[in-house]
Design a protein that fits this description.
heterodimer, A: 148 residues, mainly alpha, 2 domains, 6 helices, 0% strand, B: 139 residues
């Protein structure tokens, strides 16, 4: 199925992926009483603060992420993806690391778990990172900076 | 043990959802953020689907005296909108827009494009370490 006017969009795959992400976060919440925030769990796993969860379980969640992607890859026969050059990836990674620790979360913790809880902090954080994300893409496009 | 297995199952479902929804493709993520250009709305469906399921889950929380496999809920209690929150989110968004990766997809992509994803993940952990060191120095 495609969206009229958006030939590139994959709305059904997107919705199905979103439901899986929601189920994953719901499992963490209802079974363990925890927020499925990837930045916090990743920080916890490597001993850089973050979630109050045990380090072993934080590692299990983090290991599950590539495992889940691998399963989709094997079933679908490959995942389309194009990545930026190493320098761009390093700069962006640093900003994401600093920003998510200062901002107490990322797309998962704030964008999914917090927004669905109607947390004011998460709604403000999500609108902020959406805004600066949109702005950085727009500015890079205006400057003709192609990174992918 | 139950906690570890539940975490692994959750992480795996999460990673599968990211891959299925297209979030492990930086080009698609940047296409979503490119609202003034050639906009790709796919990620709105990803976020929408996830938020709807979680909104239902949040409604079940008050009906549970405690989590199914744990003694109590550990949920964020802060409600103040601080410069740190907004500044951090702003910086994160810039990094997200530049490379089209946020933490979950970056880690999940380690099996899709290992070298590129590893550079992003190592840099992200370095950034987290910087914050940790600064906080250690100030306290």
């Amino acid at each position: 199925m495609t969206l009229p006017g958006f030939p590139e969009a994959a709305p059904l795959a997107g919705l199905a992926g979103g439901v899986l992400i929601g189920l994953a976060a719901a499992l963490m919440l209802l079974a363990l009483g925890r927020i499925a925030g990837v930045s916090g769990l990743a920080a916890k796993a490597v001993g850089l603060g973050g979630s109050g969860m045990g380090r072993g379980s934080a590692w299990m969640f983090v290991i599950g992420l590539p495992l889940g992607a691998l399963i989709v890859m094997l079933i679908s026969g490959g995942i389309e993806a194009s990545f930026a050059n190493p320098v761009t990836l390093a700069i962006a990674g640093l900003m994401v690391g600093v920003g998510t620790r200062l901002g107490s979360g990322c797309t998962s913790g704030h964008g999914v778990c917090g927004v669905s809880r109607l947390s004011a902090r998460s709604i403000v954080a999500t609108l902020t990172f959406l805004g600066t994300g949109i702005a950085s893409v727009a500015i890079m496009n205006a400057l003709g900076l192609e990174v992918l | 043990m139950r906690t570890a297995i539940t975490s692994l199952v959750s992480g795996t479902l999460f990673g599968a959802g990211l891959a299925l929804g297209g979030m492990t493709d930086p080009a698609r993520v940047r296409g979503f953020l490119d609202v003034f250009g050639d906009w790709d709305p796919t990620l709105a469906f990803v976020m929408g689907g996830a938020v709807i399921v979680m909104a239902i889950a949040w409604r079940l929380v008050p009906r549970l005296a405690e989590p199914i496999f744990a003694g109590e809920f550990h949920l964020p209690t802060k409600s103040d909108l601080t410069p740190r929150l907004i500044g951090g989110a702003a910086l994160f968004g810039i990094g997200w827009g530049i490379a089209g990766l946020c933490p979950g997809p970056g880690i999940a992509a380690l099996v899709i494009e290992p070298a590129a994803a590893a550079i992003f993940v190592v840099a992200m952990l370095a950034g987290m370490a910087v914050v940790r060191l600064m906080e250690g120095a100030s306290s």
